[in-house]
Amino acid sequence: MWRPYRRPLVNKFADQIFAAKTEPGVVDIVRLPEVVCIRAAGNYIDFQLVNGHSMHRATLSNVLKQLPSSFVQVHRSYVINIAHLRRLQSELGRYSECVLTGNKIIPLGKQYRKALLQLLSIESPPSSS
């Protein structure tokens, strides 16, 4: 019996949207290019968008696993969209803040600094310890 070839369904929008169930019968769609950063607040996450924000019940670590590689954790409570990174600011010779679209300042955690600098192909300034 002949059967037509069926291509597997591939979500061509997987790197562009995040779907989150917000209440029974409701799924919010967050457009990832509009996400500047994501802030953890306990068991909730706050997608901080170019215009506004969207809260969802989830942990930052679980959401990070579902996001494309353009999202990078820079602090235990923050993930940034690298497309919205405008500047790194240094304090006492150490990069300590990320400046994002809209001049939003996000702390850069010590344990995440090296990975971000490597991603951006930037050498870490010598520490003055």
Automatic annotation (TrEMBL):
Q: Name its GO BP terms in alphabetical order.
A: phosphorelay signal transduction system
Keywords from UniProt, A to Z, are: Two-component regulatory system
| InterPro entries the record matches | LytTR_DNA-bd_dom
UniProt domain HTH LytTR-type: residue ranges = 56-122
User: Which interval of the chain is the signal sequence?
Assistant: none
Keyword presence, Methyltransferase? no
Q: Extract the Pfam families matched here.
A: LytTR
Transmembrane parts of this sequence: none
Q: Name one GO molecular function term.
A: DNA binding
> Known PROSITE patterns for this protein?
HTH_LYTTR
Put simply, this protein is called LytTR family transcriptional regulator
